[in-house]
Amino acid sequence: MEITHFLQMFEQTPLALHQDYLCSVLRPAIDIIRSDSGINLAGSRYGGSPDLPERFEWPTHHLGLYRFLGQFNFAEIPQVNPNLPERGLLSLFVADDPDGESDIFWGEPGYIHAEFFTDITRLVPHVPPDSVARGSSSTITFRQTFDLPFDEYQVDEWPFQTDELCASYGDLRNALHQSDDYLLGYPSHCTLAYDPTPGAEWISLFTANSDDELAWDWHDGDKLTIFIEIERLKKHDFSNLRSDAG
User: Fold this and answer.
1) How many domains does the chain have?
2) Which pTM does this prediction carry?
3) Between 20 and 30 A from 120 (CA), which of 57, 150, 169, 203?
4) Cα separation of 33 and 244, whole Å?
């Protein structure tokens, strides 16, 4: 999406008076679109069997094994942020317990585990251990877009005070996305009354909605957002991710 298209989306609405503000808070984002195409080695996808080095040891946390969340091949992703890798495969694992029988908390350090592989030619499929919860698998594609703050907690200034402006703003933000799942942008949620971003030095990396088929259940059916420190992203260091759900 070009900036001119974004401006055209609200030029005939009450939001037109707030054009400068909207442009000032605009962030690039990448919608994640599920696809029916076949599974390819090192291709971007949710769930299923991750592609990992042959002798890779499945990651563990203090209560057991991590569950494979998905993998992103950066060569398939629009380069909307200069800090994103241009190539390589990012695999994400989650300590989530879909049965709710443990005390794992999505806000704890280590809830998300990441592996980043710069050489994808040596990766092979790894079937998850039998004890790891599994859902379905889906290939994914990517669409470049923009994103706006989800609510007033994510910005210093919030000019949309009337019901009409709030409704128009919500419609505009929704129109920017073709999916509830996306990379970058602002964190979105269902229930939080605060900004889940850990601090000014962090940005949103991945936002995902709950999904029964994938066995994703974040905060009783809400959303999960994963964050990364800006300086670590510049170095392509995914070793210290944080998360929140709601």
Assistant:
1) 1
2) 0.94
3) 203
4) 22
